[in-house]
Design brief:
99 residues, mainly beta, four-stranded antiparallel β-sheet, 8 strands
């Protein structure tokens, strides 16, 4: 059994210890190991959340872009679901991505 590429979920917790940029990002396959995207947390200056590589656009350029104020030293819970026709992401139980 290999790495799943559809109909799976990833859950994890992450904390930015210091700084004001990316932390806890995860790259994941979509339908194929050759097609991957990245859940970005705290990117582009510290507050951006989104999925990079949707329609070959980074998270700061596509419709998944959102903002969240991340506090250093605080834990955050992330959940990502990859289905055949959609990707959903949650931050601390709140839906933040529906693509």
């Amino acid at each position: 059994m290999g790495l799943p590429v559809v109909d799976y979920a990833i859950e994890y917790e992450a904390m930015r210890v210091a700084g004001q940029d990316f932390f806890g990002a995860v790259t994941f396959p979509i339908r194929s190991l050759k097609t991957c995207a990245t859940l970005v947390n705290g990117g582009w200056g510290g507050g951006l959340v989104g999925i990079s590589n949707i329609d070959e656009q980074s998270a700061n350029e596509n419709a998944t872009r959102g903002e969240h104020r991340f506090v250093n030293g605080q834990w955050y819970r992330f959940r990502l679901e990859v289905r055949s026709e959609e990707i959903k992401g949650w931050l601390d139980g709140r839906l933040i991505i529906n693509a």
